[in-house]
Write a structure and sequence with these properties.
The chain is of the alpha/beta class. It has a single domain, classed as SGNH hydrolase (Rossmann fold). About 50% of the residues lie in helices and about 15% in strands. It has eight helices and six strands. The chain has a six-stranded mixed β-sheet, with helices on both faces. The relative contact order is 0.17.
Amino acid sequence: MGATWQRLLLLWLLWPLFWLQARHVRRVTLRMPEPPGQRAGVAGSGPLVRLLVAGDSGAAGVGAPTQDLALCGHLVRCLSRHHRVEWRVLAAKGLDSPGLLQLLHQAPRAQFDVVVLSMGANDATGLCAPLQWARWQTRLADLIDQRFAPELLVHSAVPPMHACQALPQPLRCFMGLWAKQMNQRLAERLADHAGRPLQWHPATTTQVGMAADGIHPSSEGYATWAEGLSTCILLAFNAEQ
């Protein structure tokens, strides 16, 4: 409760400044497109793993020059050292959790062994309350289970927004606090769900691994992110064998 009141008090006290800073960021920040490239394919050899990467601009690879150098491309490369990977990306820049729910509703039913869910930055900037956001992740997980029936659903944590160089202080610190509390709420909700791990982003407060817009990962940032996800996925699959 203390952290919640701290967050709400900061919002109440500094709201005019936050509004002005957010408006400035929207006006001056470089607009980066979703990268070109295939959003489905097959790679590697060995036991089959069917992979779906779903979510917002991070899942769509904004900040990378091509899909091959974005999150899914790096993740497929990591997994394909051990498996034959059939993969697909269902993601779009600007999506929040309700938007992703609609996108997944419209997608055809299919069977996937692993779903990686990258969601939260747009919910954070929309000031979705952490508890409400965690409930949205449950709704997304229920829909994913119904339509794709994965053995493993990996929730990728809300990015470390305190590291977004495009955000001026104190807005950056505030958004970092908001994202941290979103992740804490989700972690509490996932504590009893063995098939739904929460994979945290590498902690960083530097420009290393950031794209030119100061918000999204670069190819190097996506590679580091994918390595952590692949370790989580491979550990889960090896534990089942």
